[in-house]
Each structure stands twice: as C-alpha cells, then as structure tokens.
Amino acid sequence: MERKALRTLALLAALAASTQLGAQEAVGVPPPSPSGWSAARTEWGDPDLRGTYPLDQVGRTPMQRRPEYGNRLLMTDEEYRKAVDAAADVEAGADREDANNQLGAGNWFEYGTALRQTALIVEPADTGRIPALTGEGKRLQTRMRSSWNGEVFEKLGDFNSLDRCITRGMPATMLPFPYNNGVRIFQSPGWVVINHEMIHEQRFIPLDGRPQPHEDVKSWLGSSRGHFEGDTLVVETTNFNGLSPMVIVGPSNGTSGIPTSTSMKIVEHFTPGPNGLYYEAWVEDPVVLTGPFKIGYPWTRNNAYEPFEYACHEGNTLVWANIRSTSPRYANWRAENERKLAEAGVTDNGGS
Questions:
Q1: What are the residue ranges spanned by the domains of the chain?
Q2: Which of 80, 156, 186, 197 could form a disulfide with 307 if both were Cys (CB 3.0 to 4.6 A apart)?
Q3: Quick one: signal sequence residues (predicted)?
C-alpha cells in the first residue's frame, strides 16, 4: 500500500481520536479505562504495549502553548473546530499538489490533526511552556548552531545532531515531527525497545533492575531503566551527554532551541488504554532550566501504518551535498572561501 493511502488511514484514525477527545475535560493524566476493560498481557505476563503509534496523529498540537490561549489547558469548542479544520486543510495539500501535477510540502509533511489540549506540555499548567532558562542555560543557548540559524559552516559544531542525522535529542525524539513519525514498541522478557522512524533510532530499556552505568558513561539519548507499576511502564533516563538539544533550533518550534546538560533527567510513564497508551514525561535539567516541566498526551495505536526507511546517517555525503546545493549561506561562505584561497594562491580541490 502506498504511503499516501496509509496517511489517509492514519488521518481517519486521528480524526476519530480527535472526535473522542472533543469532550476532553482532564489534561495531563491518563483517561479512565472503560468499565470491565483490562490491559492485555504478553506471553510472559507483562502489560502488552506492543504496536505502532504514529505521532503525526497529534502533530498539529504544539509542544508549547501559544500566547492566545493564556492559562487555558483546553481550547473552546470554536477554537477546537478551527484547529481540526485547519489540520484537514493541511492534510489535503497532497491531493491539491497531485491535481496540479506538483510535488512539494503537501506530499512531504504529515502533521495529522490536533488535540483539544492547547499544548503537549501540561505542567506548569498556568503557562504550558518550558520554564525560563538559567544563566548557564542562556549561555549554552547562544552556542547552539544548526543549518537553520547558521551563516557560516566551517566545522561539525555548526550543525546540530539532527542536521548530522544522529538524533533529535530528548525529549524531542518522543514528540511529533512534520514527517517520519512512526513509533513502534517491541517487547521481550526483560526488555522494551522503542523504535523511531525518524533517524532510525532505538531506545533499549532493560527491566531487570540493573543499575545505571557509571556517571562517566554518557550518550545522546541517555541510559534508560524501566519497571512496571501496575499496568504502567515507568522509565527513568539519565547519563545524557549534554550535546543534543532538548528542543531543536528550527523554523516552527517556538524557541531559539533549548540546550541540555549532563544533569538532565527524564521520567516517563507509558499507560496502556483500549486504543493505545497515554504518554507522560517529567523533564528536569537544573543546569539549564529554572524548573521542571511535564509532557502528557495520548498515543493512538495504528498497526496499519508502515514506517519508511529514513535514509540518513552521520557522515552521509548526500546530506552535505544537499546543504551545499540548497543553502545560500553555504554558497556565500563557499564564494568567500574561494576568494581567500585565490588571494593566497591556493587551488581549492573541492574538499569539504
């Protein structure tokens, strides 16, 4: 089945979910289970979380609350109707492009629809936004570079971890993106694995009670340890390397990018329900942020969704070629570099 047809199925599922959430009153907590319902179990007795969860089903809900919503956790009926209509109009972009023999953002982006809640961040409830940066957080933010905000590209540090096809970072990896939003959960005795379509990332989460590695052992996505509390999978992640962003520098995330430090800690809850699961994440980084925040939103299971290959990896020469051919910033730097080389009597051989 073609991706477009799968997107249509995903949108129908998302619209069905949004209709159910139209009467949403509580935000930031798992919805109550229907009377008589109980979570399925794996063959070895753990709560069964396995399945595919395309996060684009809530892709039109922003991570941070927009100013027009003030301190409200939920949209009004009119606001929500407009949000769903706007999402449907964006999703129809592929059909409009096809009718005009075009290929553009309509066929590329997969935003899905919107939740009634005003943001994916549910605490602090009064703002729905990431708390203010500390002094050190502001200093680190000024050093954040990416292909979106750079003027000169001379070294690896001029590109962030997403540009380099390494990771979007945490908690960004667990949030919707404009495309490649497939998330699959696999389980085996003593393990949960979360596989992401975007940047083909996997998070391996042991459940056997082993301690975290030594504090000197750090990685891009941190080190996760999980256990079940009733039906809920609880995952604590530490040992971050402080090199990936909390929120990427980009054109549409409402920030100039949020950095991380090696002190970041994230506690996640995955609570199963009849149609999927409810995801929660408590994020704290006392070096960067003046306070913690919480993300909370539903994941709807849709096993008809087929993830595509994300053909990008660190050191991929096609990525650099694309940046070179499409970025006017790179072109300007290239011209200036060639001028300086010519003045110095050096011939540029086309290397990076």
A1: 3-315, 319-346
A2: 197
A3: 1-23
